[in-house]
Amino acid sequence: MAEKGDCMASVYGYDLGGRFVDFQPLGFGVNGLVLSATDSRACRKVAVKKITLSDAHSMKHALREIKIIRRLDHDNIVKVYEVLGPKGADLQGELFKFSVAYIVQEYMETDLARLLEQGTLAEEHAKLFMYQLLRGLKYIHSANVLHRDLKPANIFISTEDLVLKIGDFGLARIVDQHYSHKSLLRTNITPRLCGSLADM
């Protein structure tokens, strides 16, 4: 299984050395491909997002995303463990020296989009998820961050304990602290999420 996963990493151009094994495709974030893997050092399953740094534009986007995710720490935000360079090198803030960066983050089993494809949520589950979503949004706004891509596919769920976490900050921005919180909420929520919340 590990050999198959390592082959999968090669197919997608992942080069993190021998620490991460058993790679499997998860999906695409705004700025890059995401694979699941096992971190043999920490003995846990993780999600690894690969960001290609091909030009000044991609470098700017990567720097902004990394700056934002490093300042967020909350129960309802997908936890980022570390940001690495090729062969698992520690970036140490010198992103410009590398052609690729890897964001190693918490693995979540599914997302709200997949859950809603299975049908309408039970009322108690809908209330639980709504509470956690608003709690996460309140924290993000308190950190003066605008997500800008809040949709069901970026709202992740742990099926074991029904914990909801907001992820994929590829389009996020840091805003002025005097920016209206009402404007923050209006700009954060996509039309698809509004429809999904109604379905919940």
From TrEMBL:
Its cofactor is Mg(2+). InterPro entries: Kinase-like_dom_sf, MAPK, MAPK_ERK3/4, Prot_kinase_dom, Protein_kinase_ATP_BS, Ser/Thr_kinase_AS. It comes from the Eukaryota. Transmembrane segments: none annotated. ATP binds at residue 50. It catalyses: L-threonyl-[protein] + ATP = O-phospho-L-threonyl-[protein] + ADP + H(+); L-seryl-[protein] + ATP = O-phospho-L-seryl-[protein] + ADP + H(+). Signal peptide: none annotated. It is found in: Membrane, Caveola. One of its GO terms (cellular component) is caveola. The keyword Nucleotide-binding applies. It is an enzyme of class 2 (transferase). Pfam families: Pkinase. Its main location: membrane. GO terms for biological process: regulation of cellular localization. Its EC number is 2.7.11.24. Residues 20-200 form the Protein kinase domain. The keyword Zinc does not apply. GO terms for molecular function: ATP binding; MAP kinase activity. Keywords: ATP-binding, Cell cycle, Kinase, Nucleotide-binding, Phosphoprotein, Serine/threonine-protein kinase, Transferase. Belongs to the protein kinase superfamily. CMGC Ser/Thr protein kinase family. MAP kinase subfamily. PANTHER family: MITOGEN-ACTIVATED PROTEIN KINASE (PTHR24055). This is mitogen-activated protein kinase. It comes from Pteropus vampyrus (Large flying fox). The lineage of its organism: Eukaryota, Metazoa, Chordata, Craniata, Vertebrata. The gene is MAPK4.
